[in-house]
Amino acid sequence: MSGPFAKALADFRARQTGPDAWTALPFFTDGSADLVAARVDAVTATGAHVLPPPEAVFNSLALTPLDKVKVVILGQDPYPTPGDAHGLAFSYRGSRRLPASLRTILAEMAEDLGEPMPKSGDLTKWAKQGVLLLNTALTVEAGKAGAHLKLGWSALVDQAVSAVSERQPAVVFLLWGGSARKHAAQVDQTKHLVIETGHPSPLNRLRDFRGTRPFSRANEWLAARGLMPVDWRLA
């Protein structure tokens, strides 16, 4: 009998149709996704608390179809505190203070665009406008950041970035930090814009994220190509 994450994978596949569906990527067709889901279910079977809930694991792909992507933001793995993560990189639904990296991101957005600092950390509004918020690992264990980085999820990120670069006509890749910046080589920079900066984490000693204006630069570039800019404001 399949576990909850294998079921979530099956449900996600059932909702994806057509040649441009995310599930057409090799990750979903060559057995890789099934293997990763089985590994996550095996961890769950030991009693570990895996996050986010199974039904939220594929939210980044479900909310932002491949043919709608106009901005890509890559994260590492979900927040390891129950209730915080819901399947979108950096997005936060917890009840406490915003996570430090997200707070830095939203402070830069507010300053860049002359908007008030958002109180919400839920980035669903971005995802629905074509901002792909994809983590290197789609799952984590409670209290164990990075626990699932080697379960096989990374192949999905590699394939997703390459697919967006190949199939979409004009996309902004916001690559924040060393791990994300490694993907710049996969992007066709003759048709896409890559903005590389330091990571927004307070542990970034170079402090080379604030002041880089990625949000206005992305919108200016999209608008220059006749594409609808992203409304970065959050309710």
UniProtKB/TrEMBL annotation:
Subcellular localization, as worded in the UniProt entry: Cytoplasm
Record-linked CDD domains: UDG-F1-like
Reaction equations catalysed: Hydrolyzes single-stranded DNA or mismatched double-stranded DNA and polynucleotides, releasing free uracil
EC class (word): hydrolase
EC number(s) recorded for this UniProt protein: 3.2.2.27
GO biological process: base-excision repair, AP site formation via deaminated base removal
Annotated Uracil-DNA glycosylase-like domain residues: 62-222
One term under GO cellular component: cytoplasm
InterPro entries, alphabetized: UDG_fam1, Ura-DNA_Glyclase_AS, Uracil-DNA_glycosylase-like, Uracil-DNA_glycosylase-like_sf
One Pfam family per UniProt: UDG
UniProt xrefs under NCBIfam families: PRK05254.1-1 (NF003588), PRK05254.1-2 (NF003589), PRK05254.1-5 (NF003592), ung (TIGR00628)
Task performed by this protein: Excises uracil residues from the DNA which can arise as a result of misincorporation of dUMP residues by DNA polymerase or due to deamination of cytosine.
Protein name per UniProt: Uracil-DNA glycosylase
Organism annotation: Microvirga alba
Protein encoded by which gene: ung
